[in-house]
Design goal:
Largest sheet: none
Structural class: mainly alpha
Oligomer: single chain
Number of helices: 4
Number of strands: 0
């Protein structure tokens, strides 16, 4: 190998420092991308897995008695002056929320 060709393969100190900083940035970018991917999958799994069930769960709306019980509870809390919040995690028809809001 000639002296001219050998100098092409030698790295200057500036090139070494640039390559090590870009290597660190590459690792940081890889870590951030991997973390975001794993987080996205972890958040999506609870929403995707019900669609993959072999047995579908039945739709069961709230009964009138259940709605009456919720109303009694809300009225009792209002009489004591305790403020509270209601979260309906039911079947999705909104009966409880619409009744309580009236």
């Amino acid at each position: 190998m000639t002296k001219k060709n050998a100098s092409l393969f030698e790295e200057s100190p500036e090139m070494v420092s640039n390559s090590s900083s870009s290597g660190v940035m590459g690792k940081v970018l890889l870590a951030v991308t991997g973390t975001l991917t794993v987080g996205s999958v972890a958040l999506a799994i609870p929403f995707i897995t019900p669609a993959l069930r072999k047995i579908c769960l039945p739709y069961v709306p709230a009964t009138e008695k259940q709605i009456a019980n919720v109303m009694k509870m809300c009225q009792a809390r209002m009489k004591t002056g305790t403020s509270s919040r209601l979260a309906d995690l039911g079947s999705g028809d909104g009966r409880v929320v619409s009744t309580v809001s009236l």
